[in-house]
Amino acid sequence: MKSLITLLFILIFFSFFACQNDASLVGGKWVESSFRNVQTDTCTVLLSTVLSDSLATSGDTVCQIGHRKDALWGEITASFYAEYEVPSVSFDESIDYLFDSITIRLYSSGDYLGDTLVTQRISMYPLTENIQLDDANYLYSTSNIAYDSQNPLSSFSFTPTPGRRSKELEVRLPDEWGKEWFNLLLEDNRVMESQTFFQNYFKGIAFIPDMNAACVNGFQVNDSSFCITLYYHSLTEVITEKELVFNASTTLTFNKIEYDRNGTPIEDLQSGDDNALSTSLSNHQAYMQGMTGMYISIDFPHLNNLCMEGDLVTIESATLQLYPVKGTYGGMYPLPQTLSLYTANKDNVTQGVITDLTGNSVQTGNLVVDEVTYEKTYYSFDLTSFLQTNLGTTGYNRQKLQLILPDNLFFTTLQGVIFGDGDNTTNRETTKLIILYKTYQK
Question: For 77-94, what is each residue's pLDDT tens digit?
Fold first, then answer.
């Protein structure tokens, strides 16, 4: 009876996510078996950098404008394009109105990449063609819209305000421009009657950074930010100040991102899921960055070696720790606070998101920052369920992981992180997978 109870206990215990040797299924041999708990951090973690073809950036509520060139990320130029919407207004013919000024107002989004201590400059150019969505109703980081580069509408300089979303930047635009628009409104000119007529008269603005800039800055895009305001007043017994607001379109706006990675460890990176660049070819570093389309593929090629540790093997817990390379973050390169981890099939097609053991909460990577030596900063993910599911699988059933910025950062910011693989020597600590597993040996 005691042997039967022991056998039932073992069968129940190993009924979930176990590797087993078929020759060990004879019940009489279980009684003489032994359990062993083992912890290891030597399981190979294979990292690769993957580059998306392009990202949809139209209609986003955050944009990036600026230029940055360094040995870390290469050269990046971010520009913003926007169509403007004509406001509805009616004037009393018995009252005289006078133009005061015209401005553009921007609010920082708080995010940045580069040196925020240097004054930045942005020039505004009139578009020479209308912004149009593609057949899928998107515009992309690689979209091209022509503008008149020889005749800027205006330009302005500013000092970045990292981390301050409430910081307002209001710049006065040329009076000649404002007076022209104001007179067309007073005259009830056809070009101000509807958006269709207005977009043919004024197609929009390209916001182009100074190529000597050292920073890319984020801005909000909404009814308060990127709006052009025309100020005027009425000449009555009591002078009344008024304003008209030309808002940026909620759909016909997009961010264009240009980059040159020559001279960086990932200069050979090509777009496409089939062109993943292994860390063995990129100085033992894997790159992830929003808006440039880079994310990281993670695989565990020797996971099934655990099956050779006993007649039955079960994974009790598993934690993946990813260490940013020292010197690639902090100051000009802030680390993202959250990351997203997805499962993918062998063809790198995304399948689902990594959640906690309950399956109710999405993991975002627990970030631990070492602000003293910068040697032990890492993100951690609980991979217990994922590895339990994949232990013993082969071929098409075998999954891998995709590490990427959350959507709200990947499509709107240049935040990024560079991880070292297990052979990277910059840090004392390197990427590791810590597994606690239980074995049954006959």
Answer: 999 999 999 999 999 999
